[in-house]
């Protein structure tokens, strides 16, 4: 299968991998310690010693962005995994079982899709005041619906194939047929859904943190760095521009990759 | 049963599930809707007990849900915790600003999407630029885009006001329009990204159909085929996609209104969130969801009435 990988997808993938590596190596490669204060250079614009400038305590912004990447990327990847696992499980159950199970699951899916996602998550985060782990679960739990719908449709069409009938005819258990014969056919869809969900998870985390209900200081994520930067956008714009640009870049890479995967 | 009646029969259980979800979410708070008062040293425990009784929070959850739903349907949405005014009153006074912002940006986004969809079908260059633009538009954090545009056009260049709906000192029409430019741009861009991509795809599909080939064989120009045949073919499904995106529009309005301090329902929501004003939050979520369900009902019924092809399938 020597399919041509579009250059756009290669670049997007390379940037994503680079970001993950940089985030993983943050404690080793970052120029300063995470909480190192440099009181002589507070609110300093970008310079040779502080590439991204410093904040109101003289902390190096590049260092904080690198550490923030760990939280933001982790939230993106783990919440995507949660979304897609839930989506595949619910979609496959609905598509395979049919009848009333299908009807109930699809009504719940429709209901979840009708409630605006961001306000719903904002209320959930405000009510539960979650730590990062619970936040990941919340973001993941808010993103399974689209995957469930697509997977359900795919499972329904795969179910009608002769190889499924054959497997059932030789007496294979339902669970075995689904896992061995049906789910592999859903993999390409799940791959696209995961890539999209990573980007969406990062955007949602950043929006929640931007409104002060997501990742709480002293932990740094790109979103809560923006939350802290919004009041000083005019005097220290770099504090807002860099974290936001990194969110944009990361999500752009995820979405480009998903587009390439679809084609 | 007619199609509309059957479709309506589906919408009712949907709304019930949504109401359960919203109610359950608010009551999942440790300490329930009064949790904010629990941390307030000025509120005595006996006051909280009194409030609980007054608001019916001492009754079983099931009873609370039924009475809440009954009052909600009757239009009694309770009182705001923040200022004691009826929630309906607080929300209604914010509706015009939101309708203005969302209405104008939706119209703008539709116009941009149609122009991009048509342009992309006719010119390869436009097509490539449009697909890059669409991915970028879908990827940009809306609040960050808002902050950057404020920084650029208000603080650095000084061309446009950065926030609010009008200047304090009696601004005229020009002043009001100037206040609209940035929030409308941000919101319209966010929607146009997804919609233009959808329309581009469906125009392209329509162009591959036999009627487009037939028109080409008759010597009809490509521009005319796109405008008169393919676009007409694609517009109805496009209209439903726009209506079905009401849920995304609500999220977009919350973010955009908050960043630009636009005095609409979206910024009422973030104000209520900061104060944990649960009656307002619940009312917002319910209204937005009811609007989404209603619009998707209308979209389905309209398509069923206008497009005979969809009738055979059902």
Would you give an account of this structure?
The complex is a heterodimer of chains A (263) and B (314). Chain A has 263 residues and is mostly helical. Chain A contains eleven helices and no strands. Chain A has helices at 7-24, 26-29, 61-97, 99-114, 117-128, 132-141, 145-159, 162-169, 174-210, 222-229, 238-262. The longest helix of chain A is centred in the N-terminal third of the chain and has 37 residues, at 61-97. Chain A is elongated, with a radius of gyration of 22 Å. Chain B is an all-alpha fold and 314 residues long. Chain B has 15 helices and no strands. Chain B has helices at 3-27, 35-38, 45-54, 61-74, 87-92, 95-122, 124-139, 142-156, 173-207, 210-217, 222-244, 246-259, 265-274, 278-306, 309-313. The longest helix of chain B is centred in the middle third of the chain and has 35 residues, at 173-207. Chain B is globular. The model of chain B has no long low-confidence stretch (mean pLDDT 83). The chains are: A mainly alpha (263), B mainly alpha (314). Chains A and B meet through helix 4, helix 5, helix 9 and helix 11 of A and helix 1, helix 7, helix 8, helix 12 and helix 13 of B.
